[in-house]
Amino acid sequence: MRKKVVIIRCLCLMAVVCAAALPVLRAVNPTLVIRAGLLIDGTGDPVQTNVHIFIRGASIQKIRPVSQGGVPLFARRIDARNRTIIPGLIDSHVHFVDEVFCGQFLEFGVTSVRDMGNNTDFILELRDRINAGRRSGPTIFASGYLINNRRIPFGASRYTAVVNTPEEARRAVEVLARRRVDWIKVYFTLPPLLTRTVIQAAKSHGLPVAGHIRRVDARQAVRWGMKTIEHTTGIAEALLNQDEFEDAPPLWTISNRAWLHTDRSRYDDLINLLVHNGVGITANLTLYRSMASTADELKAKHDHPESLMPIFYLDGWVNYLKGRFLELTADRDSWIETEKKVKEFIRLFKDAGGTVLAGTDTPWPYLFPGYSLHEEIHLLVDAGFTPMEALQAATGNAVKIFGEKADIGTVTPGKRADLVILRDNPLADIHNTLSIVRVIKNGRPVPRKNK
Ligand SMILES: [Zn+2]
Question: Taking the domain 89-408, which CATH number applies?
Answer without folding.
Answer: 3.20.20.140
